[in-house]
Amino acid sequence: MTSFSGVLSLRFIALLLAQVVICNNINFLGYINPYIYIVFIFLFPIRDSRIVLLLVSFLLGMLVDMFSDSGGVHAAAAVTLAYARPLLLKMSFGMLYEHQSVKFSNTDIGSLITYVGLGTLLHHFILFSLEVFNISNILLILKKTLFSGIFTIILSILIIVLFSRNKK
Amino acid sequence: MQQIINFVIRNKTFLLFLLLFTISLTLTIQSHSYHRSKFINSANALTGGVYGTFNSIGKYFSLKDQNKILVEENKRLRNELFNLNKPANTSQLDTTQSRRNYKVTTAEVYKNSYSSTNNYLTINKGENDSIKEDFGVISSKGIIGIIDNTSNNYSTVLSILNTNSKINAKVKATNHLGSLEWDGKSPYFTQLVDVSKFAPIKVGDTIETGGQSAIFPKGIGIGTIEKFETDISGDTYNIEVKLFNDMTNIGTVYIINNLDKEEIINLESSVDD
C-alpha cells in the first residue's frame, strides 16, 4: 500500500511539473496548450474512495491555478471531471466497470480513447468557459476546447500507453 | 435531525463536489475583477522557486535575442544622448536641489503567458526590492503591464494582454486620449477605445502612454495604428493598435516607481471630497 501511494504522489508531482513548466509554454499557433495533468484523474485507482479523488483533484487543479494565475478555473474543471468519472467509466467500459475489473494497462484502445476523449472535452469545456467568462464568446470557447482538446487527448493516450506497465 | 444526518452521509460525494466547485468558482469570479485581493497567485516562494530553477536553464536559449534587444536599446539611448543640446558633462551645482521623479528597477521575467484571456507575468523582484502594487512595468520597446500582487521576492504583473487591464493612452501626434483594452484575441494587437471622433488620426500613427495616471510616465511607446473604425454609438473611434513589444518573447523588464504618486493620489482624492 505504501509503495502504491508513493507511485501516486510521484505521478502527481511529475504531471504537475510537466504541466506548468513545459505544457503551459507550448502555445502552439498562439493559444493551443495541452493540459496533461488530467491524466492523473483518469488513472486514479478505481477502487479508491471518490472523496479522496475529489480532494486530490481539487488540490491538483488549485496548484496548476496557482502556477498559471488563473483564479480557480483549473480547480473547478478538475473537480467536475473527478465527480463525473464514474459516469464516464460506465459509458466507455460498460460491463468491465460494473465488475470492477478495469485495468488501464490492458484495455482495448477504443474504450480508452472514448474514456479519455469524453473526459478531456468535458474538462476543457468547463475550463475555457470559466476562463473566458463571457457567453457571447461561445465560439472562442468552443474553438479553444476543440483544438486544445485534440492536443490533450493525443498526449494523454500516449502517456497512458507508454507508461503503463505490462505485467505478463 | 437523524434524517438530515442520513441525507448528508448518503450524498457526501455530491456535497463535497458542490463545496469544492463553489470554492473554485468564487476564486474564478474574484480573479475577474481587477485588484481584488487574491489568495491564489504565482507570487509566492513555491511557484517562484520552481519557475526560477527552470528559468535559469531556459534563459540561455534566448540569450542571443536578448542581446540584440539590448544593443538596439543602447543605440537608441546613445542617439538621444549625443543629440542632446545640453553639454552632458556639466555637473550639477547643487545635488540636493536635483530631484528624481521616477525610480527604475530591473527584473527578470520568470513566467509569461499570452494564450489565455487573462494573462499575468511573474517576475523575480518583490517587496524586498520595494516593489509595490500598481507600479508600472515596461520593456525597452514599450509597456508590459502593472504590478498586481507582490510577495517578498516575487511579483505578478497584470499584462496588457488581460481583459481586466485598462491603461490610459493617447495618440502621439494629436494628444487625443483614450483607454487601452484587450479583446482576448491576438497577442500582437490591443484596442484603444474612447478616442474622440474629431481626432485626425490615420493608419500608422504612434500610440503612447498618456501620463494621466500616476502609474506610467508620459510618452512611453505602445504601438502603431493598424486600422480604426467608428464605434456603434458614433461618437468615438475604436482603434486596433499593433504593439511595439513582442509580448510572446520578454526577457528583462523595467519597473517604474513614480515617487510623486502618493502626493498625486492625495491631491486627487482631496479634490473629490
TrEMBL record, chain A:
UniProt keyword list: Membrane, Transmembrane, Transmembrane helix
Segments traversing the membrane: 28-44, 51-68, 74-97, 109-126, 146-164
Superkingdom of the organism of origin: Bacteria
Protein name according to UniProt: Rod shape-determining protein MreD
TrEMBL record, chain B:
Assigned keywords, A-Z: Cell shape
Regions that span the bilayer: none
Residues of the Rod shape-determining protein MreC beta-barrel core domain: 109-256
Superkingdom per UniProt: Bacteria
InterPro entries: Cell/Rod_1, Cell/Rod_MreC_2, MreC, MreC_beta-barrel_core
Keyword Cell inner membrane listed: no
Free-text function comment from the UniProt entry: Involved in formation and maintenance of cell shape.
Family of the protein in this entry: Belongs to the MreC family.
Name this protein carries in UniProt: Cell shape-determining protein MreC
UniProt organism field: Winogradskyella vincentii
Lineage: Bacteria, Pseudomonadati, Bacteroidota, Flavobacteriia, Flavobacteriales
